[in-house]
Amino acid sequence: MTATHSIASTLLVAIDISKHRHEVLIGIPGKKRRRRMTITNTLDDFQRLTTALCSYDLPVQIAFEATGNYHRPLAHHLGQAGLDLKLVSSVGLARTREALHNSWDKNDPKDAQVILHMLEIGAVQFFHDPLATGTADIQELSKTHEIVSRSKTELWHRILTHYLPLYFPEAERFHRSSRTDWFLAFLEKYPTPQMITAMSREAFVADAWQVVGRKVSKERLLSDIYATAVGSVGLPVHPDSDAVRMFRLVLAEGRSLVRQRNEIEARAVELLSDHPDYQLLTTIPGIGPINAFEAKAASRSMAMHGFAELYGWLARLPCSNARTASATSSNATSRGTDTMPICAVRRTPRSRPRFRAPYTPWSNTANPIAPSSRGSAQAEGPLSDQSRGGSSLTS
Length: 395
Hints:
Blueprint: E1 11-16, E2 21-27, E3 35-40, H1 43-54, E4 60-65, H2 71-80, E5 84-88, H3 90-101, H4 108-121, E6 125-126, H5 130-133, H6 136-167, H7 182-189, H8 193-197, H9 201-207, H10 218-230, H11 242-272, H12 276-281, H13 289-298, H14 302-305, H15 308-314, H16 330-334, H17 371-380, H18 385-388, H19 390-394
Parallel strand pairs: 1-4, 4-5
Antiparallel strand pairs: 1-2, 2-3, 5-6
């Protein structure tokens, strides 16, 4: 959303953010010469910049580009001082820099000039500090949940492509869901088929009864696992070998990630269970508690800002059941592409197209198709001579 308003008597400030220092360019109303400052990422320099900006006794607008998380401390400090903060799009900044300087070359002072130019023409966005708006906790839960989920997925792929082909290749078919813990717990106790076949079938079923948890036809499942272990082609490694010890170490890490993920999800549901936006999101088919709290972390209050943001993040949310989306192709599924539930968002049907005679200005045709001829135009089809105004050209 672009903010356009009068900035004639406003002190305009552009900040190019970096890790250790920030380049500041100040545009003073009524003066062509701009003031430059270089501040480091320290509290003393933050206070020095705030004092310098407040000394002008003018309304202040500050624009900057979101650079990782390095802008957050400075933006929070300036926001607490009551200064108006604006955000510059990274894509818009790159395109504007190319248009102004006719070059892809960039440096910090040049970026500050481009940011100041975008602030002058109003090509900026609103900035909302998560700590000030009260969404910091939700965002950190969402980000940590993503980190843990990605780590677990990477570890599970390592198990499927390295450890299971070596020690128990046939065990992969017993895996049903990556959200369950019983399969990792089973492999941690029985990492090789030789440890299963060392017991009788009855002894194995009794020993592994509590490991697999609650299952339908549990005895049949364990008997099937035992029969599979008997004919396994896994490497005959010793149970006390370092190879098995490393396998169990990876499995223990996977179980730890499962527990962390479950803990984060439980805390997120506890934190948002009474929130009206969360309750509204969970009523949408295909949006579960996890997608709902991730969406809430990425947007502000929908009761205040309407549903424009809802459609924005729905396109970025992973689908909880991607196989139900008919638009998902086999290639997209093989690449791991997440899709949005089709039932979550419906496109507004387009209105019927209106036709007019060629070379006729719209100002002279308030109603291009008269009520008497509209039905005939529909009957003859959109490409008929009458609908295109062909009769007017031949007359």
